[in-house]
């Protein structure tokens, strides 16, 4: 296991190094295509091609950013976090579909000791997947996000000790669902069923959840949507 970890770490460093090297030339391509486009306002077909170049470089850059995010070790900047705010920030940062997300945070959900930026990223990724999943259904999309408190001792721990309090956040969509086979692989890096997917969204989600000592699981019934459930520990802080 240790050897595997070493090998993965080396791979990660390599991926990070390549991503860094690719980032600058990509940015130059985008900038130079923009300059050319401004010089060729009288050549609509050239402007269109340059527009495509800019769009594709932006997409390649988004992939590089995702790879970097995936391989970079997480350093949590922990503070007291109001979950409702973080979830609402995640909704506003969505590229599209924000109007289809319904958020409900129960009143008794306490502040968490967590990294708000990492958590925002986590929820953005889950909601983006949920919205993308409903693209082909033809139904009006709807994503339900619900945060609730699982009080201490709700289910006694296996060793007879009470379980500490936890916060549970569910992100539910009404998309096509995930087959049983795929369900086992969705958290693996680079697993994707989307033509333009990177397969890193859920790997990043899991990395963030792990860094917070949380748990994530997914339940899905093909044809009936998918629910991702994130459980985070409530860490008592002295001035809670
Ligand atoms: P990407 O979105 O780039 O494919 P992810 O790691 O975010 O990468 O997701 C991996 C795969 O998991 C997706 O390609 C899709 O098959 C599946 N998936 C994730 N979320 C959902 C969802 N809400 N509904 C259906 N399938 C999903």
Report on this structure.
The protein is of the alpha+beta class. The protein has helices spanning 2-39, 44-71, 83-92, 116-133, 180-183, 201-211; strands at 79-81, 101-105, 112-114, 143-150, 166-173, 215-220, 226-233. The longest helix is centred in the N-terminal third of the chain and has 38 residues, at 2-39. The radius of gyration is 21 Å and the shape is globular. Bound molecules: adenosine-5'-diphosphate. The site of adenosine-5'-diphosphate (ADP) has 21 residues, from α4 and α6.
Structural category is alpha+beta
Shape: globular
Strands across the major sheet, in which order? 2-4-5-7-6
Rg, Cα atoms, Å: 21 Å
Helix content: 40-55%
Q: What percent strand?
A: 15-25%
Q: Count of DSSP E strands?
A: 7
- What is the N-to-C order of secondary-structure elements (H for helix, E for strand)? HHEHEEHEEHHEE
Which tags fit this structure?
240 residues; alpha+beta; five-stranded mixed sheet; 6 helices; 45% helix; globular; binds adenosine-5'-diphosphate
């Amino acid at each position: 296991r240790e050897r595997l970890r070493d090998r993965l770490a080396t791979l990660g460093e390599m991926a990070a190094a390549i991503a860094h090297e690719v980032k600058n030339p990509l940015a130059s391509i985008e900038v130079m295509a923009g300059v050319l486009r401004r010089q060729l306002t009288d050549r609509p077909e050239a402007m269109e091609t340059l527009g495509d170049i800019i769009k594709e470089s932006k997409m390649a850059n988004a992939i590089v950013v995702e790879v970097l995010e995936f391989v970079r070790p997480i350093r949590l900047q922990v503070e007291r976090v109001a979950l409702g705010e973080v979830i609402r920030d995640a909704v506003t940062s969505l590229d599209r579909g924000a109007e289809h997300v319904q958020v409900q945070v129960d009143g008794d959900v306490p502040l968490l000791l967590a990294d708000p930026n990492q958590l925002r990223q986590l929820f953005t990724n889950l909601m983006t997947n949920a919205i993308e999943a409903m693209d082909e259904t033809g139904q009006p999309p709807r994503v339900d996000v619900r945060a609730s408190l699982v009080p201490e001792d709700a289910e006694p721990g296996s060793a007879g000790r009470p379980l500490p309090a936890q916060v549970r956040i569910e992100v539910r969509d009404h998309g096509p669902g995930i087959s049983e086979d795929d369900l086992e692989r969705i958290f693996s890096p680079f697993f994707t069923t989307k033509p333009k997917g990177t397969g890193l969204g859920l790997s990043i989600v899991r990395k963030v959840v792990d860094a917070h000592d949380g748990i994530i699981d997914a339940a899905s019934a093909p044809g009936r949507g998918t629910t991702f459930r994130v459980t985070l520990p409530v860490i008592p802080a002295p001035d809670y």
